[in-house]
Amino acid sequence: MELILKQDVKHLGEKDDIVKVKPGYGRNYLIPKGYAIQATESARKVLTENLKQAAFKQDKIRKDADAIAARLEGVTLTIGAKAGETGKIFGAINTIQVANALKEQGFDVDRRRITFDQEPKFVGDYIATLNLHKEVKVKVPFSVVAE
């Protein structure tokens, strides 16, 4: 029995894969749970059209991410924080503060797409990694200064 998976199934395949399974597994588990549909001729045509449109959308998203990455080259951020005499920050710099600093420079990046190589807990220079797309990652240096 051939099925088209509607979502990822562990040890079987990923979304939109056409897989062969035993009829009982397909009829009694995959189809009733909504994990798959039968791979009829019309379902295959719909699948190819959906994959074509999804590829077009992903290509556009990738191009937008590349454009933002090109504009981010050479950008350096400065973030102010309260710090003690030893340079230790009260609290820590988080992704929200980096996202706000980027917004002030004219870049709208979601805070959930920002990660740090090293947690900024002292005054100094750090690097934030922006995951703009699964294939496009940009490293942006930022400085933490005492206010």
Describe the model.
The structure is a single chain. The protein is an alpha+beta fold and 147 residues long. Helix content is 36%, strand content 27%. It contains 3 helices and 7 strands. Strands 4-7-6-5 form a 4-stranded mixed beta sheet. Strands 2-1-3 form a 3-stranded antiparallel beta sheet, sandwiched between helices. Strand 6 and strand 7 form a beta hairpin. The longest helix is centred in the middle third of the chain and has 32 residues, at 41-72. The model has no long low-confidence stretch (mean pLDDT 92).
The major β-sheet equals:
4 strands, mixed
Indicate the mean pLDDT: 92
Structural class category: alpha+beta
Return Rg in Å.
23 Å
Beta-strand share of residues: 25-35%
Task: Return residue spans where pLDDT drops below 50 for at least 5 consecutive residues.
Answer: none
Q: How many helical stretches? A: 3
Number of strands: 7
Q: What is the helical fraction, as a range of percent?
A: 25-40%
H and E order: EEHEHEHEEE
Coarse morphology: elongated
Strand order of the largest sheet: 4-7-6-5
Cα-to-Cα separation, first versus last residue: 67 Å
SSE map:
Blueprint: E1 2-5, E2 18-20, H1 23-33, E3 36-38, H2 41-72, E4 77-81, H3 95-104, E5 114-116, E6 124-133, E7 136-146
Parallel strand pairs: 4-7
Antiparallel strand pairs: 1-2, 1-3, 5-6, 6-7
Write out key terms for the chains shown.
three-stranded antiparallel beta sheet; elongated; alpha+beta; 36% helix; four-stranded mixed beta sheet; 147 residues
What is shown here, in short?
The mean pLDDT is 92. It is elongated and about 70 Å long. The chain is α+β, with helices and mostly antiparallel strands and 147 residues long.
